UniProtKB/TrEMBL annotation:
Designated name of the protein: Phenylacetic acid degradation protein
Organism: Aquimarina brevivitae
Source taxon at top rank: Bacteria
InterPro entries assigned to the protein according to its UniProt record, in alphabetical order: Hexapep, Transf_Hexapept/Carb_Anhydrase, Trimer_LpxA-like_sf
Pfam families associated with the record: Hexapep (PF00132)
Amino acid sequence: MIYSFKGYIPVVHETSFVHPLAAVTGNVIIGKHCYIGPGAAIRGDWGEIVLEDGVNVQENCTVHMFPGKSIVLKESAHVGHGAVIHGANLGRNCLIGMNSVIMDDAEIGDECIVGAMSFVKANTVFESRSLIVGNPAKVIKQVTDEMIDWKTKGTKLYQQLPADCFATLEEVEPLREVPKDRPEQEAFYQTLNEFKGKE
């Protein structure tokens, strides 16, 4: 659902996909090839939210801020299932792990990886290529070329997903039994450990 608020109407590029069960409100600008999953809430009611090209905000994420703020999720930022971005800026090609919380005025640098369930305190600044984990979150090491290559490949899947959704996603009645000719799905992406093993 797309909602205007106090005269602000969200801007969504035609190549981006916002799931009908997501809510995008007010002063929100969404660039090209972005994916917004079901249950996501992007609330530009009190300030501006900009998603640059290729950003994905997955299922049940929240993006919001205190009044008067403006935040940017830079190109190819990847926000995992259930994460909360509250008044923080995300760098280019970063990864925010599932169920992480990134608080107000935090700055996540380019190509950082934030581990699942991490808590980034308000006003915390992380330099580019930091691997960030914990509660409170801290840097444990630098992101390697191998890690960012793996992350980038995963984000490219989400950048293809809008086109796939436009082409094939439709509301249907469920089947009542499994068809005999039901195809198997391809394993076209590996965990980081599996990816490392193939290099």
